[in-house]
Amino acid sequence: MTGVVTSKEMNAVHEQKKRLRILIAKPGLDGHDRGAKVIALALRDAGFEVLYTGLHRTIDDIVNTAIQEDVDVIGLSVYSGIHIPASKELLEKLEEAGVDDITVIVGGNIPPKDIKRLEEMGVAAVFPVGTRFEEIIDFCQQLLRGNKS
Amino acid sequence: MAKKEITEKDLRKVVLESGIEVKPIYRPEDIKDLDYERDIGNPGEFPFTRGIHKFMYRYRPWTMRQYSGFGTPEDTNSRFKFLIENGQNALNVAFDLPTQNGLDSDNPLAKWEVGRVGMAVDTLKDMEIAFDGIPIDKISTSLTINATAPIILAMYFVVAEKQGVDLKDVRATPQNDILKEIIGRGAWIFPVEPSVKLVCDIIEFCARNAPKVYPVSVCGYHIRESGATPAQEMGYAFSIAETYIDKVLERGLKVDEFVPRFSFNFDIFGNMFEQIAKLRAGRRLWARIIRDKYGAKNSASMKMKMIAGGGGAGLTFEQPENNIVRGAYYALVSALSGTQTMALCTFDEAYTIPSAKASLLALRTMQILMEETGVCDTVDPLGGSYYIEWLTNEMEKKIIEVMEEVESWGGMINAVERGYIQSKIARQAYEMEKKIQSGEIVKVGVNKYRMEEEEKEIELYDLDMTAVKTQLERLKEVKNERNNLKVKESLEELKKAIKRDENLMPYIIEAVRHYATVGEITQVLKDEYGVFKEPPIF
Hints:
heterodimer, A: alpha/beta, Rossmann fold, five-stranded parallel β-sheet, 6 helices, disordered N terminus, B: alpha/beta, TIM Barrel, 2 domains, four-stranded parallel β-sheet
């Protein structure tokens, strides 16, 4: 079984040593952050570096923090129904700032009909209420391995 | 051949969320130390374990108060009238996030959120429209508002005055519990100390001028929704209430002058007996605290009055119609717990704010319980049950432990400023979610009896964007029509009163009377007090 290790596999091994940095962000005025805190703890337990913005953040705040902290992923947590405009503005502002290496994911109270719309806008994945931790962790691990972009 | 006899050891272990292990059978010996007069008492008598009124629902059933409000004040006014026409006898107003956070509808930070999760209020004009044709002297109104409660309550007072209702006859309950916002709901603005000062301004002002107002509704509810156990929900609520009482006592009021108008808001989901015992134990403990620690003489001070129900954290995104059934159980548990007022989360609330259909269904759920099941006929029907009385005792011990822990943290204000409680309950929420995902805690339709093909769209409330336009136009109109000099003067007076550390209610009432906006008044307070900074919690 111990065959030749390809450079691709070496890269994968090398990449896995890097820790993925994830910013969990609460845009807008809503204060329901149980979900944001729970997922932050779950991702941290899974070995990722996790930052949490705290409440009442503008999209500009979130973009600035993401750039300063050099994160790989922004996870927007939305329960108030603003997921479409908030995600749209986030993606636009990241583009304006010339950032193309941050993956945006969205979680929270997202009605099924909006999931496709978010994905079409450029959100890499949507994890509505009820998503299992392992699904989100698996997504992040694949990102780390470069299987997703 | 004889079968092996099953013993308790063969049964699965049951431990309640509050950490109490439950036996399969309870017997008289489990409550042998219970003294009826001392520990339970007749309904309406100290220590009010069985209920705060002698005849409870047999004389007057609970008040039904569905949380409602969305879009413009016009939209909300028609929803209020719809609910009243269908038998609801009180109101419970939801405000949008800009209003809760002290921002006007035209503030750039309010974009996307005007009228979305509640009614938008910028000026007195909006409250005049919302309560148009609603008799304020006959309907009691709960205002779900906290950081900006002084402003919204001031508006309500002026609307009452304009309807010809004396301040002494206004029946309202501003939620006005900022400490729970900081722990669990997130609609905070100012730092903790000035926030608590504003809470106490309302309590003091109402005690002196508006005696029928319940000036605070201390919400264990949102703390539980954020991850607290039932015992913590009650313990933290009592520690918060004590914080407000202590501060108001410093102002020279006597306990019996304001504590009779304290009220509470509790959450119902999870183990039903644990919730019932929580509320029975809470009543008994509150009565003892107020009598023995605070030396109250008036029994009205000792009665723990409450709204119960809700159950948002018990509802599921999956198979949303199951939430209708959950709501019915939560209503039953609330009634068996002896609540004064009930409000239920609607079945679509895991998705959005309630549709009219869902609100009506919640109202009918309570009406069916009240009218068809006999639940109103006999007071505290579970009283005397070996299990319930034993569990009430155990819950009381747990609640006391929670309060002692808060004391060990240097009191509630310190605990909240340092994020101790926020951190603790966030971790518990995570642990609970892990247990749900592992199946250790069963949620039907989520981790058991799940249906993969169920993606059925439910009819949801959708924000009407014309509402936003209407709201922005009205704000502009009001600003053009009002006497701007008076607005400026009244805001100046408010600023001076802040510097003199006076009770701000009279100044805020004066400012709203001249149509100063929620945002303008909040800005004056922010300039003087600053804003709250969240402590890092992990």
